[in-house]
Design brief:
mainly beta, four-stranded antiparallel β-sheet, five-stranded antiparallel β-sheet
């Protein structure tokens, strides 16, 4: 189960069931702490902590915030693209960009991942991916994942910076 605790308030239940792999909980706060994006039962949801309203963002997994922005990404597995390869099971995901403050979604491209039986019981490696630094911004990386460059918050065309 996934719960959130706000300062001076009681625990708030978010989801009765979340998939945690290698101690990575699929939930992240908006930079100002007013919302939390989380995954439950292969669905990404966003909860506004001020109003208590929760909305479904889309079918998918592994939400991750983009540093220095009011945006996050999540992954939608592409149906019918899962196949066995020499190293394990190849999966392809559409990387989707969203903002904490609105419901628009923008597809960014395809990320490939190989799940292996000897790594986290064949769970998809996107479950443990991290947002890492790159000279021009940030990218998604992790064992068994093809690196995926994210829009830069520092250059034109990237996600907008968080406003005070």
């Amino acid at each position: 189960a996934l719960w959130v605790e706000e300062p001076g308030r009681e625990l708030v239940p978010l989801a009765p069931e979340v998939e945690v792999v290698a101690n990575v909980v699929p939930a992240f706060f908006e930079p100002r702490g007013t919302a939390v994006v989380f995954e439950t039962q292969r669905e990404v949801r966003l909860r506004d902590l001020r109003t208590g309203a929760t909305r479904v963002v889309g079918r998918g997994v592994a939400p991750r915030p983009i540093p220095f922005t009011d945006r996050f990404i999540y992954l939608e597995e592409i149906p019918g693209e899962r196949r066995q390869v020499e190293d394990g099971t190849l999966m392809e995901y559409l990387v989707v960009l969203c903002a904490f403050g609105d419901s628009r979604k923008e597809p960014l491209g395809i990320l490939r991942a190989i799940a292996r039986a000897d790594r986290w019981g064949n769970a998809s490696p996107v479950r443990t991916m991290v947002v890492a630094e790159h000279p021009s911004g940030f990218f998604l990386r992790g064992p068994g994942i093809s690196p995926f460059l994210l829009p830069s918050p520092f250059e034109g065309g990237g996600p907008p910076a968080v406003r005070p």
